[in-house]
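re: ur question from yesterday

yeah so i grabbed the chain u mentioned. its 170 aa long if i counted rite. heres the sequnce exactly as i have it in my notes:
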Amino acid sequence: MSVSYSAPLSLLTHYLIQLCGQVEYITVNEKSALKVFENITVIHEPQQNIVILEWTANAVNDMYADAIIAVLMKVSSDPKYQKVKRLPEKNDPVVFAERVSKLLGDVFGPENVTCIGPHMNNFRVGLESGKTAILELETMEVQSDDESMKKLIETCCARLQEAIEPSTLK
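ran it thru and got these structure tokens back, copy pasting raw so excuse formatting
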């Protein structure tokens, strides 16, 4: 299915990442394309001002394709979406560490969060109940014997990172 689309592929990529969380950059017949929802291929043809969607027809893929078409129509028809802003540079590690510290302090209490490590790039969260967790910022790995605490820290940090860092293609 082809849909009229004259905006840049980067803008479409941004909105598709907002829609589905993960977009894979691929090349199809020497043309820039995106793999969305693992089953929908979105081929950008800027010379013709179109986007071609390809998928294997079934109920789920048809629903995903409809969602992608809705995004295409919204971006193409709304002039305020045509203004593309430059994505911010990757977040400064020191600033990100401060934000993680603040977030963990808000969730677990500031008295329970300690910055540790030779470069102050790890955090220890210790609760009165004896539960502890170590967060390594560089890899975003959480080590804890308590699975629910580990999952909470992973989720909080992932959401913070998604909120403040530019989207990346996988």
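noticed a couple things. Residues 84-88 have pLDDT under 50 and may be disordered. also Residues 93-164 form one domain.
anyway ttyl
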